[in-house]
Amino acid sequence: MQNWIPKRHAMRKSPAGKFPRRHLALAASTLIALGLALLLLPGENAEAKRTAIPLDLELTPSRVSTAPEVAPVVTEQAWKEIPVKNGDSLSAIFSRADLSPQDLHELVSSSAKAKALNKIRPGQKLSFKISDDGQLEAMSFQIDKLNSIVFERGVTGFTTTKMTETPEIRQRVASATITSSLYRAAQDAGVSQGIIMELANIFGGVLDFVYDVRKDDYFIVIYEELYLNGELLSSGQILAAQYFNRGKSFEAYRYINKQGEVDYFSEAGESMRKAFLRAPLDFTRISSGFNPKRLHPVFKTVRPHRGVDYAAPRGTPVYAAGDGRVADAGYSKANGNYVFIKHGEAYMTKYLHLHKRAVSKGDRVRQRETIGWVGSTGYATGPHLHYEFLLNGVHRNPATIVKQLPAPKKVAAGAMPEFKAQIAGMQLQLRTYAAQRNYTGVDAG
């Protein structure tokens, strides 16, 4: 017989059936409410985010964003550099840069400074800034390592800006003992050609580098060197120099007076620049001296040689021995290409057998200005300069007449204290260096 079970106890057949349905619904509602409350409670990250918001930021609908803002990306247009090659023209360079003839025309006609582009040389550089659509936006022309011109396209065309780098100036001291020539000794000491020529120019009024230079002479020179970003660009000015010759010491100091004029003076304030150079060209040898009874090399007869012949390679520069005016310049069968210079009323110098002339009749010339180049025109057996010196129309020996010429100018008496103060540092450097090299036993010249 089947057991009888009352209906009110039928739900006990399963664990879930232990509670009435209304109790289960109440429990489910409580659990859902508790879960929502936990989700809405702020955690550590939420607190960090809240404190990161600026206090003065108003959270209005227009300021609220669901995604972070991304800044626009700006790309800098690259410069395209093109070096100038042998035989290059501006049109060829613009073509290599994929620019049109119109771009070239607009740029070169933009300003007077653009005319510098007509003198481009191999080794210089042009840099182009070109837009994505192929338009020229800017161009930079490097004249040399210190100077450049920048052209930038504006609303009305190209604007031009001159850019100049400022080099670092360093002092250098060099010295050498003469074994064969000043030029060779200075080269061996690492002195640039420009400084060598300037050294000869400074002492050219007191020393004849053909007659006077002897083996075992020596010199000290203090000069500037120009550097840019650690790279040597060039030599600058000679600041002081000392030359030891035949037991005498000759010193020269660069001095700038109150008027801004620059010259070189001895320690006593006497200008190193004399009225006439001792020789009108550099680093040569005498092939024939002043001789009233010389045997002429072409005609083989005794004829007066009223000047000095300087043997030198063809093309060697010939300088004006002093300030003056060109009295005559031309060509004759005997003299070849010649130049005559009048120096005031009393003096005249003559230069014969030139390869080419650099001046014309009536030109004003300055001492050591190039007036021509050594050649062998006219009655000449080989390249040389025939140089004559006339005083009141009478030929004089160029090698000795300079000792009889007027004294050079001096620093004004009132400026001597300033002069002494300006050269004091250079004097100390020269003497310290000479002592270190044991350059002693000479008398001041």
Short synopsis of the structure:
This protein is α+β, with helices and mostly antiparallel strands and 445 residues long. The chain has eight helices and 21 strands. The N terminus and C terminus are likely disordered.
List the defining traits of the structure above.
protease; 3 domains; globular; metalloprotease; hydrolase; alpha+beta; Glucose Permease (Domain IIA); about 450 residues; six-stranded mixed sheet; Nuclear Transport Factor 2, Chain: A; zinc; disordered N terminus; Cell_wall_metabolism_enzyme; about 20% helix
What does this structure look like?
- It comes from Zhongshania antarctica.
- It is found in: Cell envelope.
- The protein is α+β, with helices and mostly antiparallel strands and 445 residues long.
- It has three domains: 86 residues, Nuclear Transport Factor 2, Chain: A (Roll); 111 residues, Nuclear Transport Factor 2, Chain: A (Roll), CATH 3.10.450.350; 120 residues, Glucose Permease (Domain IIA) (Distorted Sandwich), CATH 2.70.70.
- Helices cover 19% and strands 31% of the residues.
- It is built from eight helices and 21 strands.
- The longest helix has 21 residues.
- The N and C termini lie far apart (156 Å).
- The N terminus and C terminus are likely disordered.
